[in-house]
Write a structure and sequence with these properties.
Radius of gyration: 37 Å
Helix content: 40-55%
Strand content: under 5%
Structural class: mainly alpha
Largest sheet: none
Number of helices: 2
Order of helices and strands: HH
Amino acid sequence: MHQQQLDDELEDDMLEDDDDDDVPGPKKRSKRRNNKRAVCDDDKDDRYFERRKRNNLAAKRSRDARKIREEHIGMRASFLEKENAMLHAQLNTLREESNALRQLLNQRSMMPSSHHQLPPVPAIHQGLPPSSVSHQNIPQQQYSP
């Protein structure tokens, strides 16, 4: 049998098996994957070898592309893990700062009423985000009653 006859028979088989038109869902593209047949040496002509060559190149391109995608995903995962660790460290620092400030406020609330007024924020700290200003940066003389 020649390759054209094999292709024609395969197409006929696919048309005969296409009786599930009323079934919802994706349609099968081809039965070729399921109906792999060995090709006789007589049928291995130039067209066959050219198709094999193209298929091998396509398979190699697909494998290479998958490898690049997997490497990219791995690098992205590594980056996100490092970023996550950094954010957790920042969160812990901010929680510690928040707890320290709460304690400071609690200490202030325990003082006599004449000392309830907080000292003014030094000009050097005005306009900075709260996380960059700690009570340690403010001179001690402003904290003393």
